[in-house]
Design a protein that fits this description.
With 68 residues, the protein is mainly alpha-helical. It contains three helices and no strands.
Length: 68
């Protein structure tokens, strides 16, 4: 019974320890920012790909060799 009480007491004291709370908050904020950036840039992906295709076509027409 004493071991169970000690285990419970240690678990409760560890839950009160909030040293890692700040780091978790920073990770959550960075994750949210990453999701927002990906969501904002996703619609632009097709437009950027089209611009690169056009650029590649124009460079090829000009006679500049492209690397495979």
């Amino acid at each position: 019974m004493t071991k169970l009480y000690n285990m419970y007491f240690n678990m409760m004291s560890n839950l009160k320890n909030k040293k890692g709370q700040g780091m978790v908050e920073y990770v959550l904020i960075i994750g949210l920012i990453a999701i927002l950036v990906i969501g904002a840039l996703s619609p632009l992906g097709g437009a950027i790909a089209t611009k690169f295709k056009t650029l590649t076509t124009e460079v090829t027409k000009a006679g500049v060799p492209t690397t495979p």
